[in-house]
Amino acid sequence: MNENLQAAVDAIQAEFGASLQTFRGEHTLILAREQIAAAAQALRDRFQFEMLVDVTAVDYWPQEEPRFHVIYQFNSVSHHGLLRVRVPLSAAEPKVPTLEGVYPGANWYEREVWDMFGIQFEGHSDLRRIIMPYDWVGHPLRKDYPLGYEEVQFTFNFDDISLRKPHPKE
Amino acid sequence: MTEIREVSVDELRHLVSDRARSGETMLLNMGPQHPSTHGVLRLLLELDGETVVSCIPDIGFLHTGVEKNMESKNYQQAEVMTDRLDYLNPIGNNLVYSLAVEKLLDLDVPERAQVIRVILAELTRINSHLVWVGTSALDLGAMSLFLYAMRERELILDIFEMCAGQRMMTTYVRPGGLWRDVPVEFEAAVRDFLALMPARLDEYERLLNNNPLFLERTSQIGIISKEDCLRYAATGPVLRAAGMAYDLRKARPYSGYETYDFDIPTETAGDVRARYLVRMAEMRQSLRIIQQGMDRLPYGPVRSNNRKYVPPPRSEIGVSMEALIHHFKLWTEGFSAPQGSVYATIESPRGELGVFLESDGGPKPYRVHFRTPTFPNLQIMPLLSRGHFVADVVAIIGSIDIVLGDADR
């Protein structure tokens, strides 16, 4: 861990009550969702984490509490430091404040997480689906969303399966 | 039958100016079938006459659900899908996925495999940049360059074919090393390519660098500052053309890049021309790296000896019971990775390519996420195109080098 990263980790732990996990030399801070906007502001302004390189999520269904982790990757270009922040969210209330105000680049990433996981970003300026079609139902990367397989059609059941199989829109 | 719902201007009101609602400015759809959008990108342009007032990119037409699919495959099977993401950078995608799995498993890679990985990754970078220079010059009307660039690209694809048996979907770099060793013809083919390429690059530059039409179409078009690049997490040649020497091969070296001698080309203008110059210079640096790799290419194994994760060589299976058991276990149920999550990155031809991999301890990845460079780079399209002509939008799309398979995943 280089000095800047160490200082950032210590400060975020002390000020925002985060806990630290280290695996294979990578450092992950676990933060409550109320703290994420202020912590991101501190990381950018005080510790030169200029880039928010990635926002994604993991679904731990059927576990309810927490069901989701939103994962942020902060990159410090000037100090070559990479820091991961996880925000656990419950199944009942999958909401987290947006980071768009701190990092404008979070806009599309948060739209993607909304699209794929149905996690809402409070205060987001443009929370539309980005990858799936506008009228899509459901959030595909949730673990309770089926992957979908096609049934094999034989001569004796060809018509039955044809009737119940989803067809592309005319 | 559900009805197809189209998005109305009302839903996009916050993205267009008030003048669009009164009909003073025009909304124009560009794509998804427009040839200059390099695949299936759709841009909704708000135009005041010929000038772009706002630009709303719409992506997702090439979404293939790779991340969801990988969750139902084991680690070896999932790798095959990585080729299909950024189809101009197959080796890079294999490499970043393998690096993530190796980090998760704490697996060592033999020296020879590391060097071959670097050589092939740099060949892929040249391959991708050749397609880029050909197509983006074609968009601006320089037809002949496209043919020249494709001619040279064919040589690289031949090298991939002799290594992997495949020209584009290689799946050659595997967790723990490579699929197999390179064939004996590899060295001669790469050395021939190294001897040929500098003169060919000179030829391209003679065609474009001082071409008045090309200068007119690229200078002072689509300018972005270093600060904006950082705020929007735009990486790769876009960031370097804006004046920041940031390259993950130097910042967070992988596969032994710290031992190679090369420079990071930068420009300060941040316009389309600067991005062109950076990519042309990068190809020359890649040639330097390949040259060093070929000179040091050591002999030895190309796969890790850790049989719990890496399959044994075919020759051992006939004589060793242990090898047969390992082979059987690896190809039926796969290996179980320890619980945890890792993030591995490489410098792809387009910027930072990262893989976030989470394992729950089973033989299948619990979650794979690709942090692809095209996705954030496309997000700056509205910034780049504002105030320019429609024809310049074509030049700008070309200059950020989009691959929609990379953005939509």
From TrEMBL, chain B:
Pfam families: Complex1_49kDa. It catalyses: a quinone + NADH + 5 H(+)(in) = a quinol + NAD(+) + 4 H(+)(out). InterPro entries: NADH_Q_OxRdtase_suD, NADH_UbQ_OxRdtase_49kDa_CS, NDH1_su_D/H, NiFe-Hase_large. It is an enzyme of class 7 (translocase). One of its GO terms (molecular function) is NAD binding. It is a peripheral membrane protein. It comes from the Bacteria. Residues 139-409 form the NADH-quinone oxidoreductase subunit D domain. It is found in: Cell membrane. Keywords: Cell membrane, Membrane, NAD, Oxidoreductase, Quinone, Translocase, Transport, Ubiquinone. Its EC number is 7.1.1.-. GO terms for cellular component: plasma membrane. NDH-1 is composed of 14 different subunits. Subunits NuoB, C, D, E, F, and G constitute the peripheral sector of the complex. PANTHER family: NADH DEHYDROGENASE [UBIQUINONE] IRON-SULFUR PROTEIN 2, MITOCHONDRIAL (PTHR11993:SF10), NADH-UBIQUINONE OXIDOREDUCTASE 49 KDA SUBUNIT (PTHR11993). NCBIfam families: NuoD, PRK06075.1. HAMAP family: NDH1_NuoD (MF_01358). NDH-1 shuttles electrons from NADH, via FMN and iron-sulfur (Fe-S) centers, to quinones in the respiratory chain. The immediate electron acceptor for the enzyme in this species is believed to be ubiquinone. Couples the redox reaction to proton translocation (for every two electrons transferred, four hydrogen ions are translocated across the cytoplasmic membrane), and thus conserves the redox energy in a proton gradient. Belongs to the complex I 49 kDa subunit family. This is NADH-quinone oxidoreductase subunit D. It comes from Levilinea saccharolytica. The gene is nuoD.
